[in-house]
Amino acid sequence: MLFSENLEKLIQSFNRFPGIGRKTAQRLAWYLVAQDKNFALNLAETIKTTVESFKTCSQCNMLSESDPCPFCISPDRSDSYLCVVENSSDIQILEGMNEFKGRYFVLGHLLSPLDGYGPEQINTAMLLERIENLHPSEVILALKPSAEGEATIHYLWELLKDKGISITRLSTGIPFGGDLEYSNLNTLANAWKRRYTVQ
Amino acid sequence: MLFSENLEKLIQSFNRFPGIGRKTAQRLAWYLVAQDKNFALNLAETIKTTVESFKTCSQCNMLSESDPCPFCISPDRSDSYLCVVENSSDIQILEGMNEFKGRYFVLGHLLSPLDGYGPEQINTAMLLERIENLHPSEVILALKPSAEGEATIHYLWELLKDKGISITRLSTGIPFGGDLEYSNLNTLANAWKRRYTVQ
Ligand SMILES: [Zn+2]
Ligand SMILES: [Zn+2]
């Protein structure tokens, strides 16, 4: 028995979010229906206002309510360090460290030629222009160590290696709190290869 | 640096959903901002339409777009079996079994006197009226085996035990695919006590 076409539509919308399976989507949809209506109506309004106010920063390609974005115009951040990320949301995660005070660049996608994401789709030209303007001494490729991430890191390294800039990437290995037993073999083999002296 | 007040509001709204932590809320909010705007605007519209169309069924207390709900008016379902659940969403989960063809009743909350949920708040009078009208031969208390669930099961059993109705509850024990090692002691002790002959 179909509960309600509207509810089913709502469940399917939540199901489209990354990492939200059918069961969680059901839970979210029913929560909205069961809560006081104002919460749900406010959420609907917030979604509308937010997505309508966001655009892409013409300098760093980040999603932001202003162009240039706060990170590109801030006088408190250094042009010497440029951190390249896959998505705008990665910036919020990295900012959580409260460690990095340089500039950002958002690729928008990792290199994945079979899915139609070649060098143009990951905004290579815009990145080169950004580097041209900022003259950073270090470009940090803060991309995830997946097959696509590795391909992108390699591609960008080839592109940038002769420009006299230090090209770095995040350390890979066993995560803190991670268990050897539950690490996959790639992670383990990589951590073994990258082992370092205890001091 | 605050990214955007709107985005922060959106993150905090998602964070209010059960089981959605701050990190997942961030992921959901950014996904909405990064997708094509139509998806987000449609979601906002679906939320509005859905919550505005849902009300409570006056017979079973379920959230539904019609009163009586489809389960209460369906001629294909038997009055002989009444399944009591905590929330409307439990009905969708149980319907997934495609096994039960009786009626439902939604308590809305488990008994939890310290949080202000006494017999009146869990709609005891409405349940008694429902039983009066349906004359079921079996009432299935499909409540979770938590402290509050057990208290509610016990309370409802006391209330109904002298009415000549069979009062049942769902089996408790080790879940399929569950590991002895990862079962908590209550689950294990209960499964031990309820062990049954293999045949
Ligand atoms: Zn920017
Ligand atoms: Zn009903």
3D architecture notes:
The structure is a homodimer of 199-residue chains. With 199 residues, chain A is an alpha/beta fold. Chain A folds into two domains: 5-53, Helicase, Ruva Protein, domain 3; 56-197, Dna Topoisomerase Vi A Subunit, Chain: A, domain 2 (3-Layer(aba) Sandwich). Helices cover 44% and strands 11% of the residues of chain A. The first copy, chain A, has eight helices and six strands. In chain A, the strands form two sheets. Chain A has a four-stranded parallel sheet. In chain A, strand 1 and strand 2 (63-64) form a beta hairpin. In chain A, helix 1 (5-15) packs across helix 2 (22-34). The first copy, chain A, starts with a helix and ends in a 6-residue tail after the last helix. The mean pLDDT of chain A is 91. Chains A and B meet through helix 1, helix 2, helix 3, strand 2 and helix 5 of A and helix 1, helix 2, helix 3, strand 2 and helix 5 of B. The complex binds zinc ion (2 copies). Residues 57, 59-60, 62, 68-69, 71-72 of chain B line the site of one zinc ion.
